[in-house]
Structures are given as structure tokens and as C-alpha cells.
């Protein structure tokens, strides 16, 4: 079942549509291109990085959870530029929730600045924070190449993949389930514990 949060207004929906259209323009922006292999970046450096170790990644995930906890209040997310751009997404593999996008953060690989926050509608009409998603536009829009694949905490983004709507370009993304445990894994795209039922 898919449904929108009941509080989404026509104004927010218009902003979300504009944000999605911005993805297409962002595809040509060089600032959004990442090679995913920056060995001087302490967050994405392979085995030598503390963040790449199990203990290092655990500590970094805990730091992300602490910093992003302010978004448990969806009004804080809205004030910071996040707008809902999807219904509550579910599949046979589980759910993702409602995607709240901050267009200014598309392409970010900063662990504390995700482009997307994931919320599940609650029975009282509110929204419960589940996790975050980092989203980057594929520079050449070619599914056959991935030389600009970003990474976070030593984990390569999923993709490149087709957009999920006509306005969304070929992209990479990485889901991180910081606030809702995921039996499929902290970086899995779908979470079987998320059902969008409120």
C-alpha cells in the first residue's frame, strides 16, 4: 500500500515537484560528480581508514545517529529545506517510507548531510524518522559506466540505476537505517520492518 502523509499540502507538493525537476539540471553540474575513490578522504579511504573497520563504522554510524536525531521532528527537516517527494514506498522486500529531499544536498557524501530523510507515517498523522539516503546524479547518465560512483563509510553507493520517475535522472544512492533496525542490513535499500501502515 502506498499513501501520502496527510499533512502534505499543495504548496509542499509543488516544491517537491520543483525539487525533482532540479535533479535533471543537477545532472550536468560538475560539483556533483564524485569518483568514489578519494584515498585522501578519511571517510571513504579503503582499509586504512578507521571508518572502514567494523568498530570505526559503528562509531561513525553512532555519530550520524546522534547528529541527525534532530530530524525526528519532521518540522525541523522542513525548516532545513527537506520536502516530501514520494508517497510512502513499499515493495515485497519491505518499505522505504516517504522520501524528504533537500535539493541542495544532492551529491553530498558528508555523513552528516544526507540528501534524503526517510519517514514512516504514523497513525496520528505524524511522521517517524527511519533513516537517511545519500543520492548522487550519475555524471554521464550511462548505466554501463560507474567511474563516478560515490561511497560513504567505505561502502559504495548502489547504482547506477534508472530514475524512479520521469523527472529523476540515472543516479546512485545509499540508504542507511539509523533509526529503524533493518534485518536486511543497515545499508539495504528496503526494510522489511517498514510497512507504511501507520
Question: What would you say this structure looks like, in words?
Answer:
By secondary structure, this protein is α+β, with helices and mostly antiparallel strands. It has one domain. Helix content is 19%, strand content 22%. The protein contains 3 helices and 9 strands. The strands form 2 sheets. Strands 1, 2, 3, 4, 5, 8 and 9 form a 7-stranded antiparallel beta sheet that branches. Strand 4 and strand 5 form a beta hairpin. The N terminus is likely disordered. Keywords: Signal.
- Major sheet description: 7 strands, antiparallel
**Number of helical segments with 4 or more residues:** 3
Please estimate the helix content.
Answer: 10-25%
Would you tell me the overall average pLDDT? 80
Helix-strand pattern, N to C? HHHEEEEEEEEE
Large-scale geometry:
globular
Tell me the structural class.
alpha+beta
Query: Measured on Cα atoms, how large is the radius of gyration?
Result: 16 Å
β-strand number: 9
Q: What separation lies between the terminal Cα atoms?
A: 11 Å
Strand content: 15-25%
* Count of structural domains: 1
Uncertain regions spanning at least 5 consecutive residues: 1-51
Keywords: Signal
Biased composition (Low complexity): 47-56
Biased composition (Basic and acidic residues): 34-43
Region (Disordered): 34-56
